[in-house]
Amino acid sequence: MAQAGLVQYSGHQHLRLRLVLSLLSGKAVRIDKIRSEDKNPGLRDFEISLLRLLEKITNGTIIEISVTGTAVLLKPGIISGGPLTHDCPLSRSIGYFLEPLVALAPFAKKPFQLTLRGITTDEHDLSVDLFRTVTLPHLQLFGISDGLELRIKKRGAPPAGGGEVQFLCPIVKQVKTLNFVEPGKIKRIRGVAHAVRVNPQFSNRMIEASRSVLNRYIPDIYLYSDVYKGEESGKSPGYALSLLAESTTSALHCSEAISQPGVAPEDIALQATRALLAEIDQGGCVDRQHQTLVLLMMVLGSEDVGRCRMGEPTPRTIQFLRDVRSFFGTSFKIVAAEPMDKECSHLLYSCYGVGYVNSNRTLA
Amino acid sequence: MDDRPHKAHRPAHSGAKAEKKDKGKGKEKQHGFNEKAFAPKSGRRADRQGRRNVERDQTRLHVPLVNRTPDSEPPPVIIAIVGPPGVGKTTLLKSLVRRYTKQTLNEVKGPVTVVSGKKRRLTFIECNNDLNSMIDIGKIADLVLLMIDGSFGFEMETFEFLNVLQSHGFPKVIGILTHLDLIKKAATLKDTKKALKKRFWTEIYQGAKLFYLSGVLNGRYPDTEIMNLSRFVSVMKFRPLVFRNAHPYLLADRIEDLTPREEVRLSKGKCDRTVTVYGYVRGTNLRMGSKVHIPGVGDLDMKSVTILGDPCPLPDADSEKRRKLSEKKKLLIHAPMSDIGGVMYDKDAVWINVPGSFTRGNADVPQGEGEQMVMDLQDAGATLEDGVAQSHIRLFGSSSKHLTVQAPADDSGSDEDGDLDRDDDESGDEAEDESGIDSDDASEDDADEDTAPHPHSTGRSSRRDVTRTLPIASTSKIQRADVEYAESDSDLGDDDEDGDMGRRFRMEDGDALDIPSDDDEMDEGMEDGEEEENAPRWKVNLAAKAQAASSTSRRQKDWMKLIYSSELTPEEVLRGKEENLTEADGEDDDDEFFRFKKVPRNEVDAEVDCSKHAWKEEDLKQWEEDEMLESIRGLFITGTAAENGGEGYEDGDAGGDFEDLEAGGDDQAQISEPFKAESTRATALAKKKEELKRKFDEQYDDPESSKADFYTEKKDEISRQLQLNIEEFKDVSLEARALVEGYRPGTYVRIELVDVPCEMIEHFDPAYPIIVGGLLPAEERFGYVQVRIKRHRWYVKTLKTNDPLIFSLGWRRFQSVPIYSLDDHSIRMRMLKYTPEHMHCYATFYGPVSLPNTGFCAFNSLAADTPGFRVSATGVVLDIDRSAKIVKKIKLTGVPYKIFKNTAFVRDMFSTALEVAKFEGANIRTVSGIRGQVKKGLSKPDGAFRATFEDKVLKSDIIFLRAWYSIQPRKFYNPVTSLLLSDKSKWTGMRLTGQVRRDEGIKTPLNVNSTYKRIERPQRRFNPLIIPKKLQAALPYASKPRVMKPQRQQTYLQKRAVVMEPEERKAVALLQQIRALRKDQVARRKEKKSEKNAVHKKKVEKEEERKNDKVKERKKEVMRATGRKSKREAEAEEGRGAKRRKT
């Protein structure tokens, strides 16, 4: 460490999580060697856009990008929030930008009213449907619920996009401590099949196909067909199916598949369904996509022991756990959830929260 | 407290009372149950009583707060003894210590920790009269013994201290009245007590505890009174205070300087020091990675934290058993700064103070020549080389130059013996002793013999430094750890699971705590772990992991180890098991190369920073099979338990449970499973049944308990969470636990701080408390802090914007420059030049961030010689930001130079057309109140513009534009570094301009234009209004000017002669006579009155004189009393000596 309170990394991986951790912890972060070996070195346009977005939502943040674009220094200010608009580039979907914001928004000075424009669903990031139905309920576990909303104003399929969402998030003083060790059993399955600028029948076909597999398990399955027309349907044709399964203890598992050229909607639906089944098979209280979010909120909890049962960590999560330690000094205790059962791969993550209090919040 | 026995009751034998009693005797007592006695007489009253009871119940409730201090091993309660000098603080401390430890201290410095009971320890600390100390003490004290001189009454410091307490969370306060023996008259004593108690109660709360200490006996307060006080202290309960419940902190009871002596010597004592402070962790868990603040010094980085053995442990069953009868008298006391007890524990050594022949101040032991020499060696301030350099040795008597020593010699000297360099520059035999401990500290006796004398006891001016570190957590464990070391040499080949674990933790420990540059320690590490040290660490882990993987299934993976203490990439961590399974032990030593190759290949996957999991084709393919689909049926609520192993019974609500049980039983009967599964099922079943039984019992026995109210529910929740906190990390080893959750309150730790200003050590004074306050991550940052502030009503001056103010906020004390403001119609924050008289206002200043809702108090000066009340304002933090939004009003003025009907051209308001463009459409106004608007800039005179008004403006009118100018507080932050001064009460911060001028003797620069002069206004003359004759003639009568000349001739009445008739003349004469008589009468009456007045005046004067005499007498008496008191005090001072002089 060159100077106190500065965290250094190299490589472009895990950029978002590191920026989020920096903004929350208040420690400056310096990331260098960003694609320095690449043919096209430096930050990509979506990363620049993300940095701009972060600058927009904060006050006093200093972002320095080197001339070559291969190094970034972020000196975090305070998260201010409020009404904002941001146009996301078409290289990544809105999910890419929403993901860090979901972690930051509860700790802002003013409630977030953020309008994002761009692609709403793509193959890399969580679609806005999953954000609405799965990610935001995960925040409810931590006591962030009233006024938490994601409105899908327009849908925009890749490549041309044209979608618009509005993200509303309340602010909290302190997040609750999580104690989530009962995965429960799947009691209901929900889903949204949407189709824009294609035959509206497509969504029904997807639902049919998905039900053919899922009907054998439980009767409580509702798959909605969500067709946007005209102005609200964006600029490109596309369709997708997002599924989520909820357990008795309201653990959520989700999956998604989006249209590919030359693939029938039925196959897309089956892909999504099988992915959901695989995810359910993985088990745990939190699915893979949301491991980092839940772990982050656990770290930020009050100075108590938070526990959560999950599957094995993804590479992203592993790096995240290491980064958390360098920013907050907190390490997790990770043990097998059921030491007796050899087959069970679940792990119990427990940590002692740092007692993070939203210092940006205004009193009275 | 009044502890005299009550007088026994003496019944009256005669008189009215006796008769009354006799009458009562005759009556027969009612037998049996009197149903009327407990039944309400009226429904309304019963209702009212019921309501009142409920309301009274509510008063008992407080907001449920989590107490972060553990119940099992709490840190000692900090009891601060505060009061003006000479009130008897030290006497009280000595008395209390004597009460608890049966030892008499003759000198008290710094905190004194004693054991007061089975579950409680107490740390006493005396607070001196410096306001800085009072502030710091107020932030950490759990209980304040506020001492008040009963013969004098309250002093200003007492009130100041109470106000400081109030703004930083009020700890418990017990008032103690002393010097009551000086009041001789019983009635006066009673009155004084009553008056002081009343005042005390208004200050704290009605019914606050107030003790009376009568007099001093043998230099102590009476034992019975102290005993009563100690009883109160021992049963006192403490409610957690919000700030302390969110911050870790410790009161340093010992401080050591670890800087290498050589470095200090080379820099002439000016280098930054490495300092260790010792104390009990309080508040919340202390964690590495955050900064700490020492009030009076500044923000410091913690280099390492080590758990030490408790120097003042609570008695447990074991220790009680071991305690001998003879030891009963000797109770534990821990006061390193006062140098009592004689045993001191460090990280890796125990220092025992044996007052021997080499000790300073030991005059009774006869000192021989040898002893004298050793003593002299101890205080060798400079090295031999320095001595040579300074001495003027000439080789030959004839040589003109004396010998000089070259600088390089010094370098080589330090290089050749690194150990000495690092350890100490002290006498050789001591160094030898230390190395002895190093090499064979396994034997206890050896260590005892070899321990060097206690650093303090030698009386050296410089402290001994201990830089050697061993990777062990506590001194109490030295033995055990050493045994491990010894065994590990032989055990290396075994590689059993436990041994592996133990070593790993030590390695982790090393990572976290070791000083990287310490060669000694590396050597030591090599000794016992050569093989491990040869290979990179991750490889060692790999080997262990591979072995584990090959022996059993995948769950043997130690995720914590892989994630936190290995250097594998995340992908490798995840894939590790597969590799090991497939390649078994195929990895050889030089696979490092192989690994690095792999990274770029993975990068293709990691290229995209996405959260969605990319499913592989084959993963999804398997879900096409029916078998696979069936396999997860158990994960759904429709699936039966059998399909999901033992987990079947976790779900469901209470209602369906019985059926579930039945169904489970059926399943059991139907499906033949291995016996093992059945047994687990049976246990699960039993568990379930037990749970149900408990639930039923609860509902059946006590239906009330299930529907607890909000308050109890919250309390239960808190206690449940605390229980979980304790249990979660119970089985983890001490070091790993500290890593995960930090150092819990109640542990005795040693914190190594780096880059400490040298003045802290040089000017260290144990009378000033050293507090180590942990900072939250947010509190390390700086920003604009908006606070709600109110000038203290006892502070005589108003506070002015941009005047420096000293804040005590959070742990910190600092000077900053606030700007005061008020919310103007919720539109803007408008700057105020001065604070309002009796109202809150906002203040914004630049400084370290504190969480909103933190209280603070502010001072203009901390100096003791400040007249009047020093707390100038109090308030609370509202908001933190990186910019401030305060505006102040600015009025731009201009004059019209051309006026049309409702339009005017205005100039002199702006200087350029650009400025005008910026203000187009702005509202303007004339002095006479005509409103208007800026329209458009004009090209010709620069900055002129066209404006329209609601009426025609006058040429003489001034037109102004009201605008708002945003201002930012100055970025000024000046920490109060009082602990760094040699005279700790003499800190001065930034002064006001006036103060600087006064101090430097500079005259205020005088602007000629600002001087006050007589305003000379020329007399205005108005010409007479002349209306032409012609016009006058044309005017109607009503409008004609009516000009009348003054009459020149005498009127008829004036010029006529009056001739009176004789009767008339007579009447006039009579009237004249009567008038003359009357006049005379009045004159005489007046004279008489004045005579009377004079007499009365004389009488009054006499009275006055008598009164004055009385007053003079009284004054004389008072002065005599004061003189007596001061004389007594002077005498006492002589008796008490040094303590009084410094305060």
TrEMBL record, chain A:
Any one Gene Ontology molecular-function term assigned to this protein's record: RNA endonuclease activity
Residues annotated as domain RNA 3'-terminal phosphate cyclase: 8-334
Keywords, comma-separated and alphabetical: Nucleus, Ribosome biogenesis, Transferase
Domain (RNA 3'-terminal phosphate cyclase insert): residue spans on this chain: 181-280
InterPro entries: RNA3'-term_phos_cycl_insert, RNA3'_phos_cyclase_dom, RNA3'_phos_cyclase_dom_sf, RNA3'_term_phos_cyc, RNA3'_term_phos_cyc_type_2, RNA3'_term_phos_cycl-like_CS, RNA3'P_cycl/enolpyr_Trfase_a/b, RPTC_insert
Subcellular localization: Nucleus, Nucleolus
GO biological process: endonucleolytic cleavage of tricistronic rRNA transcript (SSU-rRNA, 5.8S rRNA, LSU-rRNA)
One Pfam family per UniProt: RTC
One GO CC term, this protein: nucleolus
PANTHER family: RNA 3' TERMINAL PHOSPHATE CYCLASE, RNA 3'-TERMINAL PHOSPHATE CYCLASE-LIKE PROTEIN
Family statement: Belongs to the RNA 3'-terminal cyclase family. Type 2 subfamily.
NCBIfam families (UniProt xref): 18S_RNA_Rcl1p (TIGR03400)
Name the record gives this protein: RNA 3'-terminal phosphate cyclase/enolpyruvate transferase
Source organism of this protein record: Mycena belliarum
TrEMBL record, chain B:
Compositional bias (Acidic residues): 412-450, 484-499, 510-533
Catalytic activity as recorded in UniProt: GTP + H2O = GDP + phosphate + H(+)
Gene3D superfamilies reported for this sequence: P-loop containing nucleotide triphosphate hydrolases
GO cellular component: 90S preribosome; nucleoplasm; small-subunit processome
Domain Bms1-type G: 75-239
This protein's record includes keyword Phosphoprotein: yes
SUPFAM superfamilies: P-loop containing nucleoside triphosphate hydrolases (SSF52540)
Keyword terms: ATP-binding, GTP-binding, Hydrolase, Nucleotide-binding, Nucleus, Phosphoprotein, Ribosome biogenesis
Residue ranges, compositional bias (Basic and acidic residues): 16-34, 44-60, 500-509, 1081-1119, 1128-1137
Compositional bias segments (type: Basic residues): 1-12
PANTHER family listed in its UniProt record: RIBOSOME BIOGENESIS PROTEIN (PTHR12858), RIBOSOME BIOGENESIS PROTEIN BMS1 HOMOLOG (PTHR12858:SF2)
Family under the similarity heading: Belongs to the TRAFAC class translation factor GTPase superfamily. Bms1-like GTPase family. BMS1 subfamily.
Protein name in the entry: GTP binding protein
Organism: Mycena belliarum
